[in-house]
Each structure stands twice: as structure tokens, then as C-alpha cells.
Amino acid sequence: MIYLALGAAILALLVWSGRRSRRFGQELRIAKALLAALAAAAAVALGLRGGWMASIGLVALSAYLARSAVPRGDPGASGNLSDGSTSLDEARSILGVGLDASRADIDAAYRRLMVRAHPD
């Protein structure tokens, strides 16, 4: 029970600090990743000792911390889009096809790029 209370306190502290100013963003992400690893290790240790209820709580805490440690992409920054989508113009430029390309032209350009990237 003490592990769940400690995990809830750490979670509340991290959620609160995540809403604060972003000047310590990198350090906060590193701290969250380390705490996620620590919570996962503690969950395994407790699970092996028979404390499966606390282990489940620590697994949930670990998953939350690991997910929140991943930096969110800034649309347009260094080519990363937050939703993972690619514009049609960008896709056409990657494939090397024009605006009037047919489906067969697009498929051929895709196959050509894939053979270059994965020759087997």
C-alpha cells in the first residue's frame, strides 16, 4: 500500500511540474524516464514477491511516465509533424513525381525508392 501512495505522490508531483513553465523541459523528461524505469523495476520485483496489486499500480505509473517523457513534436520543426502526416506536396517531392503523375507512376517511384532502401 505504501508503494501505491508513494507512486501517487510522485505522479501528482510530475503532473503538477509538467504544467509549470517549460524552462526545465529536458530535465523533467529525463527525470520522468528514469522514474518510469525505476517504477518498472519495482513492479517486477514486487510481482516476483507476490505483491501483484502494487505491481499493477507501478506498471500503470511506469507506462504513464514513459509516455509523458516522450517529447511532443513541434509541427514544422526539423521536419517532424506531431500527427505523423505528410503533405501531398512533400510526398510527391520525396517520390520525385509531378502533380500530373498517374497511379502507376507513383507506384513505380515508390518501388524504386523501396528497392534502394531495402534491396532484398
Beta-strand share of residues = under 5%
Shape estimate: elongated
Spell out the helices and strands N to C.
Answer: HHHHH
Number of strands: 0
Largest sheet: none
Give me the secondary-structure topology.
Elements: H1 2-18, H2 25-49, H3 52-69, H4 88-95, H5 103-117
Helix pairs in contact: 1-2, 1-3, 2-3
Provide a descriptive summary of the structure in words.
The protein is 69% helix and 0% strand. By secondary structure, it is mainly α. The radius of gyration is 22 Å and the shape is elongated. It starts with a helix and ends with a helix. The model is unreliable at 74-82 (pLDDT under 50).
Kindly summarize this structure in a few lines.
The protein is an all-alpha fold. The protein is 69% helix and 0% strand. 10% of the residues are buried.
Descriptive terms for the model:
5 helices; 120 residues; elongated
